[in-house]
Fold this protein.
Amino acid sequence: AAIAEADTVIGYVTYIRLVKELLDGKEVIKKAMAEELDRAIEAYDRAKLGKKVALVSSGDAGVYGMAGPTFEVLFQAGWTPESDIEVEIIPGASAINTCAALVGAPLTHDFCAISLSDLLTPWPTIARRLNAVAYADFVVALYNPKSGRRTRQIEEAQRIFLRHRAPDTPVAVVKAAFRPRQNIQFTTLEKMHEAEISMMTTVLIGNSNTYVRDGLMITPR
């Protein structure tokens, strides 16, 4: 509905492609990966001209998405919620929700999400967080687990979790949830490195009570 109301739609090229059937008659601005601030600046510039702008994220805009960079740009420009430009964050389904829905009910008890991308967060910080949540027995969703040039982080995450959890801890590896190339793999913490993992993948690691039965990953309450 927000896209239907918009004059201009701005987003990463892949996200634009995912909503292409909604874009007839719109001004469409495509940006590359790692140009989040540029997207937000472009959106603000168009809004100042009186345009209604839809800034598209995948998943939920507030979970590793465009909401944060947008507010950074707005506040640096002197924007306030009382200004003439209205900003609305529309909630979506993050990968942790969509992947969980496909594999069963792995998030029924306490859980957290950690991105393995060290582009914006130093790896020692990520490793410290992994160690803390592995020890605390959270169900964990790993975002951005691996890319063509970034392969060691998922291996290090596996080593950290194996210090605290049984080798047969259930793991679900979900690629492209609810998209055409969707793929689901069930494995264990010990064999997680054998699964096909990429940037399009979310890895769900169970806690000490999580189990898999009849192709469903369940964490009891």
